[in-house]
Amino acid sequence: MNAIIAKRVDSGTPDTSEISDLARAAGYTVVGEVTQTRTEDPALGMGEGKVEELAVLSEQLDAEAVIFDNRLDPYQTYNLGQKLPTGVEVIDRFTLILDIFGQRAQTRKAQLQVELAELRYELPRAEAKTSLAKREERPGFMGLGEYDESREQDIKKQISNIRDELERIEKTEEHRRQQRRESGFDLVALAGYTNAGKSTLMRQLATDLDVDENEELHPDLDSTAKSEDRLFTTLGTTTRKMEARRRDVLLTDTVGFISDLPHWLVESFKSTLDQVYRADLILLVVDVSDPVEEIREKLVTSHDTLYERNEAPIVTVLNKIDKVDAEELDEKRAALSALAPNPVAVSGQEGENVDALIDRIDAELPDWEHERLVLPMTEETMSVVSWIHDNAQVNDVNYGDDDVLVDFEARPTVVEQSRSKASDLTPAAESA
What we know:
GO terms for molecular function: GTP binding; GTPase activity; metal ion binding; peptidase activity; ribosome binding. It is found in: Cytoplasm. GTPase that associates with the 50S ribosomal subunit and may have a role during protein synthesis or ribosome biogenesis. GTP binds at residues 192-199, 253-256, 319-322, 347-349. α1 (17-25) runs parallel beside α4 (93-104). The chain is of the alpha/beta class. The protein folds into four domains: 2-91, GTPase HflX, N-terminal domain (Rossmann fold); 106-138 and 147-183; 184-212 and 229-364, Rossmann fold (3-Layer(aba) Sandwich); 369-424, no CATH class. Helix content is 43%, strand content 19%. The chain is built from 14 helices and 13 strands. The strands form three sheets. The chain has a six-stranded mixed β-sheet with strand order 6-7-5-8-9-10, sandwiched between helices. Strands 2-1-3-4 form a four-stranded parallel β-sheet. The chain has a three-stranded antiparallel β-sheet with strand order 11-13-12, covered by helices on one side.
């Protein structure tokens, strides 16, 4: 499906690289572009002359859609449709993103989030129709569709129902996260912009995992994480066990950030971002081959998103060092030092410096507590010792005639559980 890209900026030079990538990710073939630097035209978004240029180009290139890297209100969308050749669809940035999300949503949670975003997008349009109808105007001629008095209330009801279902899913996921922590797992989340290479890096960090063996304990673990050069490969979340030094670590890859997302769209995917917010450590992955100003802008936006609700430490990962030379890498490290004071530079594609990243992850995760427990010798003692082996780093075990001394390190929650299990052990009554 042929598409022309259109973009207007208030000042500077319009950059169409991201919107072109998004269009291709949605399945369009980009055949041309029209850009303009000027203030927004209230009726058309772009100036009338540029819109006429778009119309001619659409005819010449047999375009079926014009994709605007701007937000268009319903009236601008209608007016543009009247100026373009019959059959040419007008699509704005956010409609395009929703289209991609809809194509990629596989899980029930992802599908609900896409539906919620679509309803949030539609609601103001339904409200506009209601407003026009109350003024005894006919909104159909403005491209808003026929007025349906109940549609606005239907949308609000659907939004409420979806929120309730997402909340139930989130409670289940939070329970699962808590179980993992109690089982001694540290939770590490990959965050960053789309195409930063998060999924590729995940394949380097994750162990080969037989899902069947972990089905009961972790039914949502995925055996593979796709790594493709396209936007939004990961729409939901992918969780895998990580190759760590001495700790049990679960690594989660989440939907990538993208610039200039409206609040209603970010809010729709809040429960996916919770996977990041509630991690023990965040790896903020950036593509170091991008221009330094672009990297800086992405880091600022990512930090704004993460620091809003996140409490975990953040490690910046400069990925794709195979695409830059040593001099460029050093220059970018220096230029970004304020935003990324101690980054780890890696190549997820080549596996270069991944060991250093694993060491850094181990160092940044929450400290473990050291514990020495004396367990009375009972019929249940060995099962407690076995549980500690499974959930902690055991340094030494000494068996006496009447007790067992276990020296270990573990997460605070595991230490607490170990003490509780020890206190429940009751020595067998001595025979008379």
